[in-house]
Automatic annotation (TrEMBL):
Entry keyword annotation includes Flavoprotein: yes
Listed name of the protein: Aminoacetone oxidase family FAD-binding enzyme
Lineage: Bacteria, Pseudomonadati, Pseudomonadota, Gammaproteobacteria, Lysobacterales
SUPFAM superfamilies on file: FAD/NAD(P)-binding domain, HI0933 insert domain-like
Cofactor: FAD
Domain RsdA/BaiN/AoA(So)-like Rossmann fold-like: 4-390
Amino acid sequence: MEDDVLVIGGGAAGLMCALTAGRRGRRVRVIEHANRCGKKILMSGGGRCNFTNTGTTPANFLSANPHFCKSALARFRPEHFIAMVEAHGIGYHEKELGQLFCDESSKQIVAMLLAECAEAGVRIDTNCAVDDVAALPGGGFRLRTALGERRAPSLVVATGGLSIPKMGATGFGYELARAFGHVVLPTRAGLVPLTLSGKHLEHYADLAGVSFHVSARCGKARFDNAMLVTHRGLSGPAILQVSSYWEPGKELLLDLLPEHEIADWLLERQREEPAAELRTVLGDVFPKRFAQRLCEGWFTSKPMRQYTHGELPAIARQLANWPIVASGTEGYRTAEVTLGGVDTDGLSSTTMESKHQPGLYFIGEVVDVTGWLGGYNFQWAWASGHAAGTAA
């Protein structure tokens, strides 16, 4: 066999695994079906790649087994990836909440990974679809590809999830996992805009483009960030974050003024501006169009002095527990990640190796580990890729 390790998928996790294994002296080949590696990296973070988050902890990830990600994340931390970025002279900055972005372009991250792969002797086949994968009787694997047959003792599956199909996303990794006896947990779109329908959409649709700070809650999950009204529903970081926890039938609530003790604030405004109308008062803290809509659709706008001390706290409770009845999500077309995937019960948390098939590894988004918005999914790609690369 001319290769020791075959990696299917030249994205973030696959390239990290390849360069890590290559540094150990392993003969590594990456097989990428697209015409270039790292396409999702290139488009991420508005073209500047939110490549990690300095505050990464296991609590920032969703999985049927929340403990699974701990080992890999502990052994390859944000500072390890940052050291590589700095060694390549790539400028970066913190945008908010520990999110690190390139100063210039996400192309620099892809170039860095490819340079590290080249230095480690990694070979990369692009425009190379995999038609068939089989385990060899004596151990190892045989792949039939567009560029011929490949064999190796170790096979790493880094094929990603179903999100953003126009970038070439497919369910190939899940099919492969099932073929080798793995359970694949149900998948759905994560970090994705929510859609509204009927009267719920009518309330907001003509406010498309309006954005403001909210706190979005679903179950125990809570995210404080911007919300954006769209033509089809709601988006923005707070909504994308909570979308990973929401499913049809689950209660979704917004605190529309998370930075205020709303009842106290309204009573204070009543004392200080008794002649001001409610829509004017709300227009000081919301975009004017949204304040107007609140008063048209839900609250009667009258001078503050005319509200009883019972009415203002009732308005405050409504603003702090604003129900959103979503009809669904925008789906994989715009989702940043795929929830669910290869069940972690069938994998080693230390090496990502299959418990069913020696020499087979699953890393990155194909596994049932999904991070929050803000660089966490890249950190999982680096950490899981590194874990497999030290073992494969």
